[in-house]
C-alpha cells in the first residue's frame, strides 16, 4: 500500500489546540463493524459498552521532557528527553543550529546543569546529565505538547495533558495516551457501576509517534521503538473476557500496540510480556486481542491512521473521517474521539 492511500484533507481550524472545559464533553463517532458511522457524545460510551466488557488503559505519565538551554558558545538548544537509560544518561532529541558532536557540552537553567553529548544511537543523541534527570526535568522542563498545537505548553496542559489515572511511578512518556484524556473520575465510576471492567498496561510513548512516514511504500517504514509492559494478570483478564463472549476495548493506539505486541511476542498466546516494541499495524494485520478501539482522530498519512484502518478498513475510516470533517469534529490530541469496531469480529 502507498502512503498516499492514507491522505485526507483537514482544515486547520479543526485541529483542537486546547482542551474542552470538561474532559468527557467531547463528541464520539462510532464506526461499527459494517462500516456505518453514528454520531454520539463521549458519555454515550456508557450505552455502547456492555457489562462484562473490559477496558484496557495505558497508565503511563508524561514527563516534562522538553528542556531549553544553550551551548558552551552561547547558541540556543532544545533537548527533548526520549528515554532514560539510567539516573543520569538518556537518549534525547537535540535541536540546535548545528548537530552537536561527541564531547559537546550543553547547559540548562542558568548553567546549573551540564549535559554532555556522548554519541548517537540511531536518530537520538546519548547524553549524560550532571544532575539526576528527573530532578532536572521537574525543575526546568516543560510538557512536550504536540508540535501541531503551534504553541508553548501552558498551565492548563499540566493537568489536561495527563490522564486522571496515570501512575506517578511510571513517569516516562513524552506524549500522552490521548484517547484516555476523555475519561474523568465521574465517567470511570459510572462505567464501573455498570459492570464494565478495566485493566492497565504500560507503554511509554516516544516522540517518534509524531514523526512522518518517509517511504512511499508503507511496508518499508521502520517503526520507532517504545517500551511496554503487559502483566500476566492483564492478559488473564483479557482471556476471561473473551471466553465469556464479552469484548476487549483498547483505549488508544498505545494500549493496542502494547497488548498486540505481547500476543505477538508469545506466538499469539495471551500471556504477559515486557520489552521494546516496534510493532507496525497496518491493513492486513490480524488482531489477536483488540475487539474494539477508543481513539482520537489521527494525522493524515500517519502510522496511527494505518493502525485504525487495519481494525476496520481504509475505505471505512476515510469515509468516517470525511464525515467528521463535514460535521466539524475536533481533531488530534485534544480533539474528539472514535469508537471503532473490529470488522473481522
UniProtKB/TrEMBL annotation:
E.C. number(s) listed in UniProt: 2.4.99.17
InterPro entries reported for this sequence: QueA, QueA_dom1, QueA_dom2, QueA_sf
Domain of life: Bacteria
GO cellular component: cytoplasm
Catalytic activity reported: 7-aminomethyl-7-carbaguanosine(34) in tRNA + S-adenosyl-L-methionine = epoxyqueuosine(34) in tRNA + adenine + L-methionine + 2 H(+)
Keywords: Cytoplasm, Isomerase, Queuosine biosynthesis, S-adenosyl-L-methionine, Transferase
Pathway recorded for this protein: tRNA modification; tRNA-queuosine biosynthesis
Single annotated GO MF: S-adenosylmethionine:tRNA ribosyltransferase-isomerase activity
Cell compartment(s), UniProt: Cytoplasm
Biological-process GO terms, alphabetical: tRNA queuosine(34) biosynthetic process
Coiled-coil region list: none
Family: Belongs to the QueA family.
Role noted for this protein: Transfers and isomerizes the ribose moiety from AdoMet to the 7-aminomethyl group of 7-deazaguanine (preQ1-tRNA) to give epoxyqueuosine (oQ-tRNA).
Subunit field text: Monomer.
The protein, known as: S-adenosylmethionine:tRNA ribosyltransferase-isomerase
Organism the protein comes from: Acinetobacter equi
Gene, per the UniProt record: queA
